[in-house]
Specification:
The protein has about 350 residues and is of the alpha/beta class. The protein contains twelve helices and nine strands. Strands 1, 2, 3, 4, 5, 6, 7, 8 and 9 form a nine-stranded mixed beta sheet that branches. Bound molecules: aspartic acid.
Length: about 350
């Protein structure tokens, strides 16, 4: 994980967002499903807290196949979308602590507690971390007939047309929302935000011309950028993405403060037996070294984390650090879900 670039990005976000005010268990040792030793002896459900076809969904489905093979069972992917990913996360927090309900979530796990007053779960208390998965760059993309040709032109355009330009996101606390906040803070313009239950449907509307622009992970936008179905302005990381070599970074395009990348991790409910958490983590680590997964991630502008980062311990430490970082950023910015 690129800790230093992440910290730099967080610092920029703090400074930029603060400049404007936008309102925008105890252990259950496996229930009746049998012992940790026999785990898994039935299908596992992976909950994706955003819509099907979006970036979180894509990463989940990519991993589900090799993990299922390794665990010797089926993995069923279920989308429980809404409220910036908090509905799906809440469902997993309340699930049996038996390892059969697993959550794939992203950076939103660390932003939600500061944004939502009645979240209904606490990331560190109500979940066991299984391991980090990947860190994905975002892109700034627009409908293909949107007038601005470059990021600088986009800035001038939104300044001149703030009342009419629409910005899509996947709900409060979603990565697209955070990136959109950053964009608005950098430009000093408050835009009309259009929330979706995931950036899968948001991208469909962008391609269809129903919304003007948005930020989204390369795991969702790469195909549409390469096919010319959307207009791409920049990638939000310090370096260019190998699979999109012509796309400038936000710094190259004149907006260095727009930097954010999206880390993902797997979770099970608190109290899940450690042997089960370890079995899942081992399967995750193996899946992340699968050549098919590596190749597919590379095509989508990302890469698996190291085996060391795909452990429960590294994931917990990262979540802990990110919760503190985002609590401060969000408190300074005065942003709330409602
Ligand atoms: N990319 C979305 C976000 O803004 C989430 C998703 O649809 O996977 O966080």
């Amino acid at each position: 994980m690129r800790t230093t670039s992440r910290h730099r990005a967080a610092a920029r976000i703090t400074a930029a967002i603060a400049a404007m005010s936008l309102v925008s268990a105890c252990a259950d040792t496996g229930g009746d499903s049998g012992s940790a030793e026999n785990y898994p002896d039935r299908n596992i459900t992976f909950i994706v807290p955003f819509s099907a076809g979006g970036p979180t969904d894509t990463v989940t489905r990519l991993l589900a196949e090799p993990m299922a093979k390794d665990l010797g069972t089926k993995i069923v992917v279920q989308n429980v979308e809404g409220a910036g990913g908090t509905l799906g996360a809440g469902e997993v927090a309340r699930a049996e602590s038996d390892g059969y309900t697993v959550l794939m979530h992203h950076i939103g796990m660390s932003t939600a507690p500061a944004l939502y007053q009645n979240l209904g779960y606490a990331p560190l208390e109500d979940f066991e971390t299984v391991g980090l998965v990947t860190e994905v760059p975002m892109t700034v993309v627009a409908r293909k007939d949107f007038a601005p040709a470059t990021l600088q032109e986009l800035v001038s355009h939104v300044k001149a047309n703030a009342g009419t330009v629409t910005l899509a996101n996947a709900g409060i606390g979603a990565a697209s929302h955070l990136c959109g906040l950053l964009f608005q803070a950098a430009t000093g313009v408050q835009l009309q935000e259009v929330p979706y239950q995931g950036t899968g449907p948001a991208l469909t509307d962008l391609v269809g011309g129903q919304v003007d622009f948005m930020c989204d992970q390369t795991t969702n936008t790469s195909g549409q950028i390469s096919a010319g179905q959307v207009k791409a302005y920049a990638v939000t990381t310090p370096e260019r993405v190998q699979s999109l070599p012509d796309l400038p970074t936000t710094a190259e395009a004149g907006m260095p403060e727009l930097q954010v990348s999206v880390w993902h991790g797997l979770y099970v409910p608190a109290g899940t037996p450690q042997e089960i958490v370890q079995k899942l983590s081992d399967a995750l680590q193996k899946a992340l070294t699968d050549q098919g997964v590596i190749d597919q991630m590379a095509k989508l502008g990302t890469a698996p984390v190291t085996a060391q980062d795909a452990t429960p311990q590294a994931h917990r430490a990262h979540l802990d650090e990110q919760l503190k970082t985002w609590a401060k950023i969000i408190a300074d910015a005065g942003v709330k879900a409602s």
